[in-house]
Structures are given as structure tokens and as C-alpha cells.
């Protein structure tokens, strides 16, 4: 249940039996070859796995590195989120729950949830902060096209953290028929472990495709694509780098705290109140990070750094123009740090660098248009 | 002990610093016959609270409310005090410092809704050392063995959550409330107080039939948010007091299920 000092299950008593049921069902399913085979089939036939590993020849030449990109942007629905959601939706069905709920920020997890629900015949309700509903109207429509109900959340800062709180409130009142499909490696036990396991396919595939690099780099909001990537390289000499948004850098600028059922690094003010994160990428607008990242930070197994919105915009354009790949703004954080570290010499010339490109940038085109005007 | 079992106990709630004159609300509750007052220390992300307490918390935080100031502002209140807040604020201050502050200001109890048995051992010990009762919650879905463990480890009283949901007013008392209170009463000598969704004198009487007392929060904070003055909010608490003492909802009116 714990990752060093982090993790745990800080939920009200009414949610304890529901969390225990999810933990038991996941342990049972993950040990069941039948469940693993069904998930594997869905990942191949529906999500398009394995995703390719692209040697980024032009970017490599430009930076004096050997960069490979794990192409989660090519996964169905446009990001790594589908890996986790297919796993949890199968689990919900196995538990006999006809309905799943989810929180979403940029809308990527919401779209993935709506997709998996449609595929598996489940009802889906997605909670989304009112501010994000306005910023990401295309994804809202996309979720509704897929048959999901989207509930705008007007409480608090009206972003991802409030959508997460509202999903938890809704779950308390509907545990009997509803499964909560958490979108990142956050939340009460077993979610951080379970979501990491469902995302570990990223790292396992990448290691099989490209071996062990000198550096593994991934962006961190809640931290699911990074956790899924890192988990396959923990037993190697690879240096693991998690890249946060400057305005949402809980691991580099936050302190341990308790939010949404877990203890981890959280952005907080001088009185312990959780503060709102600010990033050009809505998907990194979360003031906390998964408990296992907190543990990797404390133990030194992974290092966490942050980049600014300006660096991210420059990296987005650069990758598009050198490799013909438009990354999601979230994923561009990893690119941005590699570009900076190549320039400063922190990444030695010739080093091999695996970057997880967690999603594609189509959803960010309106934001990019605004930023370039 | 914060509460006795010789009459039905009444624990009204106020969000700390919700208004300039919020300590007058505490005094009005005391005058109205509250047995103790629950003082909420507002948190930015209250995941077990419905819209009313969320709004109350938001209003208080927007006014610059802090846990420290609330705890010291209410020191010496003419009624026993029970603090309630989410674990983040306890962890931020540090459990030892937090409990010492509560104790210095005369708080007798502490409710932390997002701290279940698995996580509460440390705070139980720290609170006990500081002379503060850590009150544990029980829910309608809590299995029997867990109810027994909650009954064994809770201090002061047991907070029985009457329904599966967040805080807030409901039209009727939840059907499982009485069964939960009974299940707890057979396992403990501590008073069992029912909370969540109790908004009217009639519901108070219903709830208190199976429990030792009640907690009322959202119904009071809705009035405060609507601009009702402390004395008038106190008058509503007095109506709850009369209902609990007489076992009838209002003068001469017998609750529905007794007719």
C-alpha cells in the first residue's frame, strides 16, 4: 500500500469497502492469464499496440544525441491513456459494474474512458472542470459523440483537481453500481499500483524494441506515462528523468501532503491549502503527483526537473519541423528538457535517450494558434 | 467525555471564519442548548462535502481563513468544541503541533473524515497524549468486524454517517441510518451521533430515536450563506434542541411514523 512514506488510502470510511473491492479484483485479475490475454488482445486489436519506437534521426543529429521516441501518440485516441482505461474498463466489467466514472483535465483520459465504455458496453460519466470544458470544447463533444455524459464541475478552481474531487464525491454515493476509473497513478491504494501496471506496457515494449538507453525521459503531471515507462527500467543503470511543468512542479517545488486519497508531493500554500497548478498543457494542470514518483524522488532513483511554457512551445515546433511529429504539449515537456540538457551539456554528446511521446498534438492546435499569434 | 448519554446530544456545525461574526454563531449555538459545537477548519478540496459545505469552505478561504486563526479565535468558547478537517491540514501543521494547538484552545475532540482506520493509528496516539478525542467515522457499508474495530478505537463518540454520499440536506432521513446506529450501540458504550442529511426538527427526532444524538451542518451553513444572522441561526438550533428533548418535531406535532 505504500511507496516509502507515500501512498496509502486516505479516503472516508464509506469508500473503504469500494477501494478494497477494487484492490481484490485487480489482484485477482492481474494474476489471471485469461484477463491478461483479453487485455492484450484489446490493446493489439483496438488500441493499435505495440506502438512503434522511432529513431529521431534529425533531432539526434541536431542535438548530438541518439534519441528514440516511444510513440504513444500513435495509440488509439491519441495518447497512452487508452492503455490504462482498457485495463480498468475490463476490470469494471469483471466486477459486474455496469457504469464507470472518470475525471479529466485536457479531456484525453475522458475520451479514452468514453471509448472503452463504448467498446465494452458500459455507461460512462466524465467529470471535467468548467474551465477545461471551455478550453477543450472539441474533446467535450468527442466524449458526447462516443455516448458518454460529461458533467462540468463548477467548484473550486474549476480544473482537474476539482473534477477529481467531484468524481470521488459521486463515487461515494454510487459505489454499488459504479466503478471509478482513475486516470493517473494517483488516488487511494490500489490505484497508483494498478495504473502503473496497466501503463507498464509502454516501458516493457520500449525496452524490447530498443534495449536499455542511458537516459529515459518522460513528462509528469499525475505521472502515469512516466511511471509506466520507468517501471521497466528500474532494474537497469538508465538515468530516469521526469519532466514537470514549471507551474505545476509538485516534485520539484511542492512538499509532501495528502490529497485525493494518497500521500505524495503536492503544491500547497503557506497554510497547507492545495494550490492550483498553471500550465499551457491542461493535462499537467494537477497540483499533485503519484506517490511512487515521490518515493523515486526521495530514494534518488529518478530525478525530476521542470521546464517553462516557452520552452515547451519551442520544443513542440522543433519536433514538428525536424521529425514531422506534432507532440501533445504535455509530451513536449520531455522534448524541451532534452533540448535544454543537450545545450547545457547535462546530457553528454552521443548519449542514448529514450523519450516517451505520451500523446499527439492535434488537440492542442487551437492553443498553439493562440500562442503563435 | 464530550457527551453524556442522559439526554439526546446535539452537535451543530459551523465553518470557521465563514463570517466576521462567526464566533457569535458558536455562542448562539451554546445559548440554544448545543451540547458541543463542531468547528470546521476549511480545506481547499473537501471531498466528503456536498455543495453547501463546499461553498462555506470556499467563502471562508476567500476571506483568508486559516486553521491557526480559527483555532485561536474560538478559544474559551462557552461550550465544548470539536474540530473537523481533512488530514492534509493536520499533516501540514504536524499532528503533534496541531493537537497541541487544539488542546490549548480548549478543543476536546477532532474529526478527520479522510483518515480511516488504516491511516489513523499515529494521530490516535498523538491526540490522546494531547487530551483530544479522535472521533472515528462509521458508514452504512462498514462491515461488522470493522464496526467493532471502530468502536474500540474511537474516542469521545462515534460519528455514524447516516448515508452513502456527501454532507448536505436531504428530504428524508436515510433508511439505513437507524440500523447503523443500532449496530454501533451494541458494540460500544460511547455515544453514537448520527450525521449527514439531518436538516429539520422532524429528521432530528427520527435520527435520535436510534442514536444518542445528532450532528447538523449543511442546514445551518445554508442559512448563514443566505445571510441569516447568528441569533436567528441559533433560534433554529433551539428548535432542534426542543425537538430532541420532547421527542416531537414541533409543539404538539408527532413525527410521521409515530402517528
Automatic annotation (TrEMBL), chain A:
UniProt entry keywords in alphabetical sequence: Amino-acid biosynthesis, Aromatic amino acid biosynthesis, Lyase, Pyridoxal phosphate, Tryptophan biosynthesis
CDD domains cross-referenced by the UniProt entry: Trp-synth_B
Designated name of the protein: Tryptophan synthase beta chain
Organism: Virgisporangium aliadipatigenens
Function: The beta subunit is responsible for the synthesis of L-tryptophan from indole and L-serine.
Enzyme class, broadest EC rank: lyase
Superkingdom of origin: Bacteria
Residue numbers bearing the N6-(pyridoxal phosphate)lysine modification: 81
Presence of the UniProt keyword Acetylation in the record: no
Cofactor(s), by name: pyridoxal 5'-phosphate
EC number(s) given by UniProt: 4.2.1.20
InterPro entries noted in UniProt: Trp_synth_b_CS, Trp_synth_beta, Trp_synth_beta/beta-like, TrpB-like_PALP, TrpB-like_PALP_sf
HAMAP family assigned: Trp_synth_beta
Gene Ontology cellular component terms for the protein in this record: cytoplasm
Subunit structure and binding partners: Tetramer of two alpha and two beta chains.
Transmembrane segments: none
Pathway: Amino-acid biosynthesis; L-tryptophan biosynthesis; L-tryptophan from chorismate: step 5/5
GO molecular function, one term: tryptophan synthase activity
Catalytic activity: (1S,2R)-1-C-(indol-3-yl)glycerol 3-phosphate + L-serine = D-glyceraldehyde 3-phosphate + L-tryptophan + H2O
Similarity comment: Belongs to the TrpB family.
Span of domain Tryptophan synthase beta chain-like PALP: 47-359
Keyword Lyase among record annotations: yes
Automatic annotation (TrEMBL), chain B:
SUPFAM superfamilies, per the entry: Ribulose-phoshate binding barrel
Keyword match Amino-acid biosynthesis: yes
Keyword set, alphabetical order: Amino-acid biosynthesis, Aromatic amino acid biosynthesis, Lyase, Tryptophan biosynthesis
Gene Ontology MF terms: tryptophan synthase activity
Enzyme Commission (EC) number: 4.2.1.20
Gene field: trpA_1
Family to which this protein belongs: Belongs to the TrpA family.
CDD domains reported in the protein's UniProt record: Tryptophan_synthase_alpha
Pathway linked to the protein: Amino-acid biosynthesis; L-tryptophan biosynthesis; L-tryptophan from chorismate: step 5/5
Active site: 38, 49
A Pfam family annotated for this UniProt entry: Trp_syntA
Catalysed transformations (reactions): (1S,2R)-1-C-(indol-3-yl)glycerol 3-phosphate + L-serine = D-glyceraldehyde 3-phosphate + L-tryptophan + H2O
Protein name: Tryptophan synthase alpha chain
Described purpose of this protein according to its UniProt entry: The alpha subunit is responsible for the aldol cleavage of indoleglycerol phosphate to indole and glyceraldehyde 3-phosphate.
Enzyme class: lyase
GO CC annotation: cytosol
